[in-house]
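Onboarding guide, step 5: your first structure request.
Type a short instruction followed by the sequence, for example:

Predict the 3D structure of this protein.
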Amino acid sequence: MSRTHLFFKVELEHEPGEDPERLGEEICRRIERVYGVRFAELSSITKVDK
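The system replies with structure tokens like these:
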């Protein structure tokens, strides 16, 4: 069986009090559950100032 790494960039809007790292971890959990992937990880967070 072949294994392939996919890299995604996700732009997320959130409330000032929400923790973007926690949101990213939740996205990883959902990817693992919905798509049955072996592993999903949040590798970095970059804050964008408007």
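Each response can be followed by summary notes, for example: The chain has a mean pLDDT of 90.
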